[in-house]
Amino acid sequence: MTDASDATVDAVGKVTEALEWVERARGHLYSFHQLMGHADLTLGEACDALRDAGHDEIAERLETDVVGRNVLQGRWTFQVVEEFDDDYWSVIREHERRVRDELVGGERHLHEARMKEDRRTHGRKGHEERP
């Protein structure tokens, strides 16, 4: 473990915590991407079923106006995901890594490692420092 000050470790930990929240948001963005894709495919199946049931005009209206529609101006969800990854997620990941490299020798989760050391019962099974 590095000999960085507690204040530095705490500050670096906050940067990492922010990245962890972004990672969670990214996961939700991927869920949105998959949910919307599934919805679009299901709506296409619904249009086929409507046609089979003799409701061609309704199927045509849904298919023309909604199936394959952009979720944001000019974008399907895969494009939203790609833009987020390229313009935000990759940038914060690089900055977080750089902060760790510069201030704590690249160590990850140093704040948690110190917390573990403080909270574990030394010498007790299940409280080992490392695997």
TrEMBL record:
Residues covered by region (Disordered): 110-131
Domain of life: Bacteria
Protein name per UniProt: Uncharacterized protein
